[in-house]
Design goal:
heterodimer, A: mainly alpha, 12 helices, B: about 240 residues, Rossmann fold, 8 helices
């Protein structure tokens, strides 16, 4: 654990700089350059608002903001998880040349996606103002919720990164799994009202045992509806996230110098 | 009594059944096939005093690159241990991981940070690196536009200017054009004269090693065949290589 803290301190700057570099290289050479960082989420938001607002006539309150919060959090989670499987292979060139604590790669990826998520949250803010949604002190709960999300994501990523090295087709499995979770998370609809009316039990299970569903619902509660999220839920998921992270870091430290031999 | 920079004791590195496997293969095959272990290095022990230039020579597949990577801390030792006495170390190899879309300048910072330098230190040394690499206006262009020679030149310059205590070089002195080669030779000479730097070079070129190194290690099949003064070992190696053909 001590080693984790000292490595974190030593390489923190690198993780940040490499995230920045990654972001830059993503848009380098494109015509609109960094405007894409804003343009892409805005366009996605418009598409979803159109499809679900007009075509499916969604009836959730503050619909666009409702979907957009879900989408923002999901995108963060999804991009991170999917990239973690191939993380080591993609960075083969670096790993084969210097020693680098491998979780730094994850950290860098999280920074990168966190930046994108912040832009999306800026759009959420605009939507809140547009809908004239009254803000309450409950908004402050997004800070612990955010920490919970990051710790959980980190935990999942460490484990997936490790197994991704040895299991070649883990990527396919994860893709299918993530798609399933996507529909079970209630990003386009509210689990409580859509599934909950006929199947309250199922809705409860989906809402409680799926961390993303729980987190997204909590974010919506505190941002849109001025409700206090379940604090016990946050603590439990934070604890699970911490356990996963510690386990993942332990496994990575034990095996990381063998990764190079495999790839 | 001279100071030791690296001490290697009974180092063994294996590549064993670490092949990635797919789920399908595992389902179809009920019993695991037996492990195939390949020992790239077997019981290698040596020490390098501070300030020495050590050359490593040997046939392809004799474990030279594995040894360097183990020294750099990229591979874990399966047996034995490596003591670096807290020296910083960097491995210089052809084809390093640059971000292709970014400029040379940004890649210098990125690579430097990977070697454990702070951003301010790197920016301080930036002009030296750029001057040494001699890339001209290309330094501000994306790395993907570089020719392979320019690529290696930049890589070499970063490691050469941002001096770590121990520098490991893998077959890289042959990069670049005549002028750059001369420049890197001069830099190597400078490192030799510098009492603080320890350098380990892997090369197939007997001429290079003869010129640069004080001591040479001859690796054969993962074991040390000979370790001694450069001239002596290289003569024996030459004779051995000639006799085999």
């Amino acid at each position: 654990m001590k080693r984790f803290v000292s490595d974190m301190k030593k390489y923190y700057k690198y993780a940040k700089y490499s995230a920045k570099a990654e972001l830059k290289s993503e848009v380098a050479g494109s015509y609109l350059n960094w405007i894409w960082w804003v343009l892409e989420p805005v366009c996605l938001m418009l598409i979803y608002a159109f499809i679900f607002g007009f075509v499916f006539e969604a009836r959730e309150k503050y619909f666009t903001a409702f979907i957009y919060i879900g989408l923002t959090l999901w995108t963060f989670f999804n991009l991170n998880i999917k990239s973690s499987v191939k993380m080591i292979k993609r960075n083969r060139a670096i790993i084969g040349k210097v020693y680098l604590p491998k979780f730094i790669l994850i950290e860098s990826k999280i920074f990168e996606n966190l930046f994108k998520m912040m832009i999306s949250f800026g759009i959420v803010l605009v939507l809140l103002i547009y809908y004239k949604i009254p803000l309450t002190w409950n908004v402050l709960y997004i800070i612990p919720l955010m920490i919970c999300l990051i710790v959980l994501t980190f935990g999942f990523m460490t484990l997936l990164m490790h197994f991704g090295v040895f299991v070649e087709d883990l990527g396919n499995v994860v893709n299918i799994g993530m798609r399933l979770v996507f529909y079970l998370t209630g990003i386009m609809f509210s689990i409580e009202t859509r599934i909950g009316r006929e199947n309250p039990q199922l809705a409860l299970i989906l809402g409680k045992f799926n961390p993303m569903a729980f987190l997204i619902t909590s974010f919506r509660d505190c941002l849109l509806y001025g409700k206090t999220p379940e604090i016990i839920g946050i603590l439990i998921w934070l604890a699970i996230g911490t356990v996963l992270s510690v386990l993942g870091i332990y496994i990575i430290y034990k095996n990381e110098n063998n990764y190079v031999k495999v790839i | 009594m001279e100071e030791i920079a690296i001490k290697v004791e009974n180092l063994t590195v294996c590549y064993k059944s670490l092949k990635p496997y797919s789920i399908k293969k595992n389902f179809l095959r009920l019993h695991r096939n037996k492990k195939d272990i390949f020992e790239a290095l077997h019981g290698v022990s040596f020490e390098v005093p501070k300030g020495q230039i050590l050359g490593i020579i040997g046939k392809n597949g004799s474990g030279k690159s594995t040894l360097l990577r183990a020294l750099a801390g990229i591979f874990s030792a399966d047996e034995g241990k490596i003591d670096r006495f807290g020296n910083t170390i960097s491995l210089l190899a052809i084809g390093v991981g640059f971000q292709k879309e970014l400029s040379g300048r940004e890649n210098i910072i990125l690579s430097g940070m990977l070697l454990g330098f702070s951003e301010t230190e790197i920016i301080e040394k930036m002009p030296d690196i750029i001057k040494f690499a001699g890339l001209g206006k290309f330094i501000d262009m994306p790395v993907r536009t570089y020719s392979s020679g320019m690529y290696s030149k930049l890589a070499f310059s970063i490691t050469a200017v941002l001096e770590t205590d121990i520098i490991l070089i893998d077959e890289v002195l042959s990069v670049g054009d005549q002028r750059f080669k001369k420049k890197s030779y001069r830099k190597m000479k400078e490192l030799i004269n510098n009492e603080e730097r320890t350098v380990i070079i892997v090369s197939h070129s007997i001429g290079t090693l003869r010129k640069l190194c004080q001591k040479v290690m001859w690796l054969e099949g993962g074991e040390i065949m000979m370790l001694g003064d450069a001239g002596e070992v290289l003569d024996k190696y030459q004779a051995y290589m000639d006799s085999e053909t």
